[in-house]
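call fold target=CXL14 protein
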Amino acid sequence: MKLLTAALLLLFIAMCLASAEGVKCKCSRKGPKIRFSNVRKLEIKPRYPFCVEEMIIVTLWTRVRGEHQHCLNPKRQNTIRLLKWYRVWKEKGR
């Protein structure tokens, strides 16, 4: 009986952890190359235990699509340039 209870408890914990992975790691697919002028908001989420790398989520605004979000690959040169540009832009108080 104790073995069955322990097995069910382990199964429950595994299911909770599997569902937490989908909640925490949003960047399963990386977004396209973006224009800096369309950036409305930039969020840098820390690396969770379930994610391979940190999440960089950009909110863009265009006339055609309105507001939408993309995940960016933190290792790409374009993303590194965007992070530098955004920090300078934010320091200027825009």
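return ok
Helices lie at 2-24, 77-91. The two ends are 64 Å apart (CA to CA).
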